[in-house]
Specification:
By secondary structure, the protein is α+β, with helices and mostly antiparallel strands. The protein folds into two domains: 10-88, Elongation Factor Tu (Ef-tu), domain 3 (Beta Barrel), CATH 2.40.30.20; 107-190, Beta Barrel (Elongation Factor Tu (Ef-tu), domain 3). The chain has helices at residues 67-72, 129-132, 164-169, 187-197, 205-211, and strands at residues 10-19, 25-30, 43-46, 49-57, 60-65, 83-88, 107-117, 120-126, 140-143, 146-153, 157-162, 180-185. The strands form two sheets. The chain has a six-stranded antiparallel beta barrel. A six-stranded antiparallel beta barrel has the order 7-8-11-10-9-12. A hairpin with a 5-residue loop joins strand 1 and strand 2 (25-30). The radius of gyration is 18 Å and the shape is globular.
């Protein structure tokens, strides 16, 4: 499984979206940095969604999008000219600067509020229960593929704060109130939940973690 870090390498641009009715779509994306060693078959996170490169074309690449991906993510709203956050899968020799991101979206959120606080920009984002169950204050969350720290957590929303560099070099800095964003919760919480749910009666959490190599 490809792994990403949530550190966006560049803002690409959608050159074309070829719709195939209910059969999915084909994205053609202009890029520069990620093209340096990109090969057909490689994985690229596009707004946080893991896609497979199907072709190198001119100044960019193409990727096919399955119907399920269109139904469950904000990619369905993309159009020619839109900016997208791009990150290649992390190599085995790479360093984690963000957090573990799988590129599998848990849900779509909506920007409820945006305001400045000193040199930062704060976003309040609504999120569905399947995202919030893995969200903790001061924990990590991927928003359109950007690794961010949860500043505040509410019953149906959370807030994140962007430094000027992140706002300038990702698409989130251009998004306003009402915009939709792809959300991926911290995968560590998902693994812990699964271990707890399938723990045999009488076994402690420590016993289960030891048996699974933790």
């Amino acid at each position: 499984m490809p792994v990403f870090t949530g550190l966006v390498e560049e803002k690409g641009r959608v050159e074309a979206v070829e719709r195939k009715g209910l059969e999915g779509a084909r994205l053609r994306i202009q890029a520069a940095i990620v093209m340096e060693d990109l090969k057909v078959g490689d994985s690229v996170a596009v707004n946080g969604i893991c896609l497979t490169v199907t072709a190198r074309e001119g100044r960019g690449f193409a990727a096919d999008v399955m119907p399920e991906t269109l139904r469950k993510t904000g990619l369905v709203h993309l159009k020619a000219g839109d900016g997208v956050n791009l990150e290649r899968a992390m190599p085995a020799t790479g360093r984690f600067g963000g957090h573990i991101v799988t590129g599998h979206i848990d849900g779509v959120g909506r920007i409820l509020k945006r305001y400045r606080e000193g040199n930062a920009v704060v976003y309040k984002i609504s999120a569905p229960p399947e995202v919030l169950r893995y969200t903790v204050a001061k924990g990590s969350i991927a928003v359109d593929g950007i690794s961010l720290t949860v500043a505040f957590l509410e019953a149906e929303a959370f807030s994140v704060s962007l430094i000027p560099l992140t706002a300038a070099e990702t698409t989130l800095g251009d998004r306003g109130v009402g915009g939709l964003v792809n959300l991926e919760g911290d995968c560590i919480g998902k693994f812990v939940e699964r271990l707890l749910r399938e723990r045999p009666e009488g076994k402690t959490l420590l016993d289960t973690l030891r048996e699974n190599g933790f």
